[in-house]
């Protein structure tokens, strides 16, 4: 069965897009057929990837009445496909959400991905309404992205409230976990925020925290995932392998796999 | 000056939100709201049980064993006994195939209840007393079981602490499975361990 995961946060600027993009890359590198869907009207995934920003995407498919997967882009990794949002005129953002809801488009993306993909990942816009809510209604697992700073932590319970209400209304979505982003052990406020995150959300917090690192800016400038920033990926790219390993563990992805035994180094 | 965490967030409310926002799907649209919202404080539980007004709900949604297997372990974060009991009750109603649940001490005094009738509440004391004699038989544990009530099945588990025994029970269309009883026992022990 295809896994469906949304990365969400009420607060903006916490690193949802970076986390979703690099996790999608890590899933694909681990041989999972992965579709990364940009549900952000801002087109944040497209803006993060060189060569994608101006391509027509989900918004155009929706406007033209095409299949929601019509604008899927193949990438250098055969296992990774991307469905960008594409350009959305500033005055059409509200209409986009409305049309998406009327067409139940994000749920249809999940439904139509069942044969072709192992994982569908949604990057969502900041906030709890519009496309974010649609994404949460469409997926089974939600990962809350929390920047390790006070304001992001104060906003986090609001996302949980929305999830609780959606579940009580019959949605399948469930909080898979909380990932701390932009962590640092040098800044006392960031450290206090991390401690608060662990204290409050305990085993729901992923052991992997994404560090604040200038390499992210370099990748952003180049418009690539961390893993493709250079021929030898920067060390911090491994953080997402670790995070995806935890995600797979929580979802029981490889439980009972008969071909997952240790591999001898020397024959 | 009072020390305040950077998140300004109350641990108990987060624990309750996490309980509502995680775990397997709630099978009955709307039903869970009705079940969760009125989880009563212990004192009000006996005086005002809401029971008969709650229709039978297939909590496991017919998925049976798979749904039971996916039940998350109850996590208790509060030191407040009333909050711990309320969370246990909410967890039970959410994750077990039942229409009502109760928590009682070994004297049969109901500490918290939701979705069971006065008549069912009154059964708890005599039932636990009767089991004392059963337990005197060598090799008989009798700390979990089920009782047919005619139209419903009552299932229960017990846990012992230095402060006495506690009982967690459910009422539903069928008796709980052995696995479900083990989950209840684990949840009850997790709850009363800190009381």
Write a brief structural summary.
The complex is a heterodimer of chains A (267) and B (195). With 267 residues, chain A is α/β, with parallel strands linked by helices. Chain A is built from ten helices and eight strands.
Structural summary, described in words:
- The complex is a heterodimer of chains A (267) and B (195).
- By secondary structure, chain A is an alpha/beta fold.
- Chain A is 41% helix and 15% strand.
- Chain A has ten helices and eight strands.
- Chain A has an eight-stranded mixed beta sheet with strand order 3-4-2-5-1-6-7-8, with helices on both faces.
- Chain A is globular and about 50 Å long.
- The two termini of chain A are 35 Å apart.
- By secondary structure, chain B is α+β, with helices and mostly antiparallel strands.
- Chain B has one domain: Dynein light chain 2a, cytoplasmic (Beta-Lactamase, 2-Layer Sandwich).
- Chain B has a five-stranded antiparallel beta sheet with strand order 2-1-5-4-3, with helices on both faces.
- The longest helix of chain B is centred in the middle third of the chain and has 18 residues, at 118-135.
- Chain B is globular.
- The model of chain B is unreliable at 26-68 (pLDDT under 50).
- Chain A binds chain B through residues 150, 153-154, 156-157, 160-161, 163-164, 167-172, 174-175, 189, 192-193, 196-197, 199-204, and chain B through 5-9, 11, 13-14, 17-18, 20-26, 28-30, 32-33, 36, 75, 77.
């Amino acid at each position: 069965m295809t896994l469906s995961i949304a990365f969400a946060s009420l607060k903006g600027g916490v690193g949802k897009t970076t986390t979703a993009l690099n996790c999608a890359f890590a899933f694909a590198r681990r041989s999972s057929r992965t579709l990364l869907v940009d549900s952000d009207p801002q087109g944040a995934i497209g803006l993060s990837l060189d060569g994608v920003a101006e391509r027509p995407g989900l918004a155009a498919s929706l406007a033209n009445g095409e299949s929601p997967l019509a604008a899927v882009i193949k990438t250098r990794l055969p296992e990774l496909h991307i469905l960008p949002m594409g350009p959305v005129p500033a005055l059409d953002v509200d209409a986009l959400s409305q049309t998406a809801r009327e067409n139940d488009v994000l749920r249809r993306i999940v439904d139509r991905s069942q044969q072709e993909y192992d994982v569908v990942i949604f990057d969502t816009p900041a906030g709890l309404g519009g496309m974010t809510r649609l994404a949460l209604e469409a997926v089974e697992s939600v990962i809350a992205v929390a920047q390790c700073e006070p304001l992001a932590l104060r906003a986090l319970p609001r996302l949980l409230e929305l999830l609780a209400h959606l579940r009580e209304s019959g949605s399948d979505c469930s909080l898979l976990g909380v990932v701390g982003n932009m962590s640092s052990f040098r800044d006392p406020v960031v450290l206090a925020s991390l401690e608060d995150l662990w204290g409050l959300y305990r085993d729901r917090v992923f052991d992997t925290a994404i560090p604040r690192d200038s390499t992210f800016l370099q990748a952003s400038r180049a418009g690539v995932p961390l893993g493709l920033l250079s021929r030898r990926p920067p060390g911090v790219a491994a953080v997402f392998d670790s995070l995806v390993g935890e995600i797979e563990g929580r979802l029981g992805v490889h439980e009972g796999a008969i071909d997952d035994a240790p591999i001898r180094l020397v024959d | 000056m009072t020390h305040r965490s950077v998140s300004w967030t109350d641990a108990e409310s987060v624990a309750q939100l996490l309980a509502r926002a995680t775990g397997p799907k709630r099978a009955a649209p709307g039903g869970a709201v009705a079940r969760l919202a009125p989880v009563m404080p212990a004192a009000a539980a006996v005086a005002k049980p809401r029971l008969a007004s709650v229709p039978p709900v297939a909590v496991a949604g017919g998925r049976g064993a798979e749904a039971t297997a996916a039940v998350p372990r109850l996590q208790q974060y509060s030191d407040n006994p009333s909050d711990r009991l309320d969370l246990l009750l909410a967890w039970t109603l959410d994750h077990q195939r039942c229409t009502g649940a109760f928590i009682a001490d070994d004297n049969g005094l109901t500490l918290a209840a939701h979705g069971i009738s006065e008549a069912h509440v009154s059964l708890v004391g005599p039932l636990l007393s009767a089991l004392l004699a059963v337990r005197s038989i060598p090799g008989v544990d009798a700390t979990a079981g089920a009782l047919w009530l005619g139209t419903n099945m009552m299932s229960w588990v017990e846990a012992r602490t230095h402060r006495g025994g506690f009982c967690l029970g459910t009422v539903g269309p069928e008796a709980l499975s052995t696995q479900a009883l083990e989950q209840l026992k684990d949840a009850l022990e997790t709850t009363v361990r800190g009381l």
